[in-house]
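README: folding subset

This subset contains proteins for which both the sequence and a predicted structure token string are available. Records are stored as plain text. Below is the entry for MEKHLA domain protein (148 residues), shown exactly as it appears on disk.
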Amino acid sequence: MLPPSPENSFQSTHADLLITSFQRLLGRPLAANPEALYRADAVVLSHDGAADPVLTYGNLTAQRLWGMGWDQLTKLPSRLTAEPAHRAQRDAMFAEMRSKGFIENYSGVRISATGQRFEIQNAIIWPLIDEDGIKRGEAATFTDWQML
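--- output ---
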């Protein structure tokens, strides 16, 4: 079940975009449906296409890892998922993804709401492009992380 919210329609539509854009770009499934995506063991996050992107999606695993509920996580500027010292590396990763179409095997240090640092490993980063070819944001998924 998706989180309780008046925006469940957006959440379901956005989850479909995550699933279909991943399949289209990488040629393999991310999840069977929005419910499976929300409850997946893998972390799945996305942000919008603003100049200072804000997170638009974080499944339950992402919420637990960052120590935030849906409402808090989806108001967070994406850059704040990393400490200032690690933001240049994060920016370089997004630049590489934009030039290549998507990237796999990304690793980087992130920080939770409680200040717990962790390293994500083997992350896949891809653009969220809808059926009309319009870019709606960017997303990441990973199953490997290590608390620091």
